[in-house]
Amino acid sequence: MDLTAIFYKFPLHFIEEFYNIRIEEFENIRIGYLIMRKIAVAMAKGGVGKTTTAVNLAHGLASAGKRVLLVDCDTQGQAAKFLGQKPEFGLYEFITERQKSGQAISKNETLHPTRENLWLLDGGIRLVELKNWLGEQPREIRQTVLAQKLVPRQGALDYLIFDCAPGWDVLSVNILMAATEVLCPVALQGPSLEGLKTFFRYLQSAQKLNLDLRLEYILPTMFDRRTRHSHEMFKQLKQHFSRQMCEPIHYSVRLSEAPTFGRTIFEYRAQARGALDYENLVRRIMKNGSQEQGHP
């Protein structure tokens, strides 16, 4: 019996409006009884491993039995490619509740099942239209449209993982209004610390509006044990972000190869160093901040 096929017959159900949640249910969300964590994988600079991290983190959590929705917020639409999927609909249709033809579509229809416990809201070029649509919304709600739309029923999800694009625009603001935790990948190569400084300015602006938003994780990526530069950058990051520092993701050819086969690193090479590194990250996230100190 194909249990996966049966599982996919039961889609997530989304509340149509945020304020339809019962008052006692809303209070439970505020004090933490409804455990749905909302993590934005974000960084101002491209090429630091955001999508690699978002996809492998989401799949790792799903494999651990958590119900995960991965939201691709980049016009490149890489998350679907990394997972070997071709969704018909995505985030544009989810937010606007309209297909390209103008026909109405339900939120459930836009959610694409990719693996057991893992759904995807696809990104892609239509997000350009979504940004225009968001810009046309009334000023008082423009920045919080995503937060209001993306409210699942109690117990439907354990994690929302946002794969963010570099840069700062109306969609970026919406993501940081919807998230409560930020995971910031920092490549230990080149001028990545400059990108981190830029992102902090974005984050501080968002925190003025979303008081629950916090920088929870700094994830060093592309760590090359052979180079002094990687060690020096790691040391600098750890000096400034000792609480947020995660164990690094080592440079790995296997991590680069896996997406070309539409697989996560756990599916492609489960014993590769990259898979072990992302297993560490999954454990860190699930423990909600506990970590072992020490240099890699």
Rg over CA atoms, rounded to whole Å, is 19 Å
CATH architecture: 3-Layer(aba) Sandwich
Please provide the count of β strands: 7
For the record, the CATH class is Alpha Beta
Average pLDDT, to the nearest integer? Answer: 86
* Fourth-level CATH superfamily: P-loop containing nucleotide triphosphate hydrolases
Name the strands of the widest sheet in spatial order.
3-4-2-5-1-6-7
Secondary structure layout plus pairing:
Elements lengths: L2 H5 L15 H9 L5 E5 L8 H14 L4 E6 L4 H5 L8 H6 L10 H4 L1 E4 L2 E4 L4 H10 L9 H5 L9 E6 L5 H9 L2 E7 L4 H16 L6 E8 L6 H13 L12 H5 L7 H4 L4 H14 L10
Parallel strand pairs: 1-5, 1-6, 2-4, 2-5, 6-7
Antiparallel strand pairs: 3-4
Helix pairs in contact: 3-14
Overview of this protein structure:
With 296 residues, the protein is α/β, with parallel strands linked by helices. The protein has a single domain, classed as P-loop containing nucleotide triphosphate hydrolases (Rossmann fold). It has 14 helices and seven strands. It has a seven-stranded mixed sheet, sandwiched between helices. Helix 3 crosses helix 14 (273-286). The longest helix has 16 residues, at 192-207. The chain is globular and about 55 Å long. Residues 1-11, 15-34 and 289-295 have low confidence and may be disordered.
